[in-house]
Amino acid sequence: MIVQFWNLHKALWSLVYWLTFGTVQATAPVPTLASPEEVGAYVGRLGYTGDPLAGVVDFTHAPEVLAGAIEHGTTGLLALDCDDHAVLAYACLKKLPGVSPQLVTLRDGSGRFGHHVICVYHRIGQPYGELRRGAIDTNGHRELPAATPEALCETWTAIYASRGYRYVSAIPTPYPF
């Protein structure tokens, strides 16, 4: 329930932000890249600053604004966090044939309120048509042996163990939040 409330809050802040600043920011078309690995490298160019007030004001930029910031070298002027990485990855992956992306919110059960948004994808591999899985987030691109909620929580709990986060559920998250 808290994740749905938080995503509604994020959608409203994102809309307010876009209506206030979106028309004056540089934009660019979301690029068509050759592979999920290239998407991960491209999204990695965003960097990470976090949302204002340590995430209390949580919003995401439109994919075209994020692409514009990368293309114009202005990423340092934006507040960027996991939502932005995941949203841009989602927009880029949707353009790849045979790739099905899904935003997923990992709910933190540690009490630190460290929810994390990632973009998980399934891809039909070549030449034999095997199903491949992966994810893109602030840590870049990674192949996954499984993309079950349990596997996602285990993987990202290990990544963020030093910060004390413990992911207990993986919630499919519609875009735009």
Distance between the amino and carboxyl termini: 14 Å
Kindly estimate the percentage of residues that lie in beta strands according to DSSP: 15-25%
Run of helices and strands: HHHHEEEEHE
Overall outline = globular
- Average pLDDT, all residues: 89
Q: What is the rounded Rg? A: 16 Å
**Largest sheet, spatial ordering of strands:** 4-3-2-1-5
How many strands? 5
Number of domains: 1
Sheet of most strands: 5 strands, antiparallel
Tally of individual helices = 5
Q: Which structural class do you get from the secondary structure elements?
A: alpha+beta
Helix content: 25-40%
Residue windows where pLDDT falls under 50 for at least 5 positions: none
Q: How would you portray this structure in words?
A:
By secondary structure, the protein is of the alpha+beta class. The protein has one domain (2-173). Helices cover 35% and strands 21% of the residues. It is built from 5 helices and 5 strands, in the order H-H-H-H-E-E-E-E-H-E. The protein has helices at residues 2-21, 36-44, 63-72, 82-93, 149-159; strands spanning 99-108, 116-124, 131-137, 140-144, 167-173. A 5-stranded antiparallel β-sheet has the order 4-3-2-1-5. Strand 2 and strand 3 form a beta hairpin. Helix 2 runs antiparallel to helix 4 and helix 3 (63-72) packs across helix 4 (82-93). The protein starts with a helix and ends with a strand. The mean pLDDT is 89.
